[in-house]
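Sequence design from tokenized structure. All designs in this work follow the same two-part layout: the structure record, then the generated sequence. An example of the structure record is given first.
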């Protein structure tokens, strides 16, 4: 793991109960051993029904960020699951805009947190990071060095580039707003005030436990409600956790990507390590992206996102 200056990390648990408590404890231990201060640890063990606490407790995790002084360097989700969409109407978007715009803060997570991240982009104009979480990533049995390096790269580098192998044909340089995250959560926000109206966007998608026909149905809904018409390209991350059957008769994700290309005319660039797998990049949602493909290799240059200041001792909360 590459060394980093000590940072303050504030945990939030706005979604599902962390059923793997040992993994969360291991994630905290690893972060502390790397020199970082981990606060709000009580959120890890909270539980109400299937959630990480009552709606009021989980909402407090979010809205309290507007009143923290000093602010942490990193706000890290414990895990995903379900629960954020229950809270969106009561989030203090104005308070969060004022507080989190005052200094660089990296709010990071994925899965269910996508709903909050996109709502913050839409209502507060805040750029957050789709990337690792405490339990599933930092608390994994084997911590991915790839994930660790890409996380710190994204939140500390004003400009960085990702490169990966893809089956997509050559694509000239396309520039636009990088946004997206978990596809099911993006689709859930369609038609609500919390889906950002991104024009000239580079939409990045990922999901887990979704059959290809469900993924196609979600993408068609985004197409039919006009979201995809405003995009310049789609980048495909990880889609896993489904079982094909004889009934599919060859219907696959490759089928889905081809059909969406034909329906929308959009280039779809596959192969990015992004999503629910242990190996994942970290992407700032709302940043500037420049995408191209040549000779089977995709390149994405990212800029315009908040970055942590270098070499500072951690603040205390």
């Amino acid at each position: 793991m590459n060394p980093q200056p000590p940072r303050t990390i504030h945990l939030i648990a706005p979604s599902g109960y962390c059923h793997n408590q040992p993994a969360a404890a291991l994630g905290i231990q690893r972060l502390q051993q790397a020199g970082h201060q981990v606060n709000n640890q009580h959120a890890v063990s909270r539980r109400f029904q299937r959630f990480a606490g009552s709606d009021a407790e989980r909402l407090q995790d979010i809205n309290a960020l507007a009143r923290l002084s000093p602010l942490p360097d990193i706000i890290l989700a414990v895990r995903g699951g379900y629960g954020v969409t229950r809270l969106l109407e009561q989030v203090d978007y104005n308070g969060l805009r004022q507080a989190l715009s005052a200094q660089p803060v990296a709010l990071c997570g994925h899965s269910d947190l996508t709903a909050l991240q996109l709502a913050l982009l839409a209502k507060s104009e805040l750029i957050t990071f789709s990337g690792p979480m405490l339990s599933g990533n930092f608390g994994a049995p084997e911590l991915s060095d790839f994930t660790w390096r890409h996380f710190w790269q994204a939140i500390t580098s004003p400009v960085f580039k990702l490169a990966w192998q893809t089956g997509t044909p050559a694509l000239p340089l396309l520039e636009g707003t990088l946004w997206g995250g978990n596809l099911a959560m993006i689709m859930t926000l369609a038609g609500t005030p919390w889906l950002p109206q991104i024009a000239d966007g580079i939409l990045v998608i990922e999901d887990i436990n979704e059959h290809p026909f469900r993924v196609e149905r979600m993408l068609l809904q985004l197409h039919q409600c006009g979201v995809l018409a405003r995009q310049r390209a789609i980048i495909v991350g990880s889609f896993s956790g489904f079982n094909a059957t004889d009934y599919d008769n060859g219907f696959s994700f490759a089928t889905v990507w081809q059909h969406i290309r034909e329906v929308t005319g959009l280039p779809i660039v596959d192969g990015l390590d992004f999503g629910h797998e242990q190996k994942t990049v970290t992407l700032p949602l709302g940043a500037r992206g420049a995408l191209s493909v040549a000779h089977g290799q995709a390149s994405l240059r990212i800029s315009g996102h908040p970055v942590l200041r270098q070499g500072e001792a951690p603040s205390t909360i």
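The chain has two domains: 8-159, 160-303. We note this feature because it recurs in several other targets discussed in the main text.
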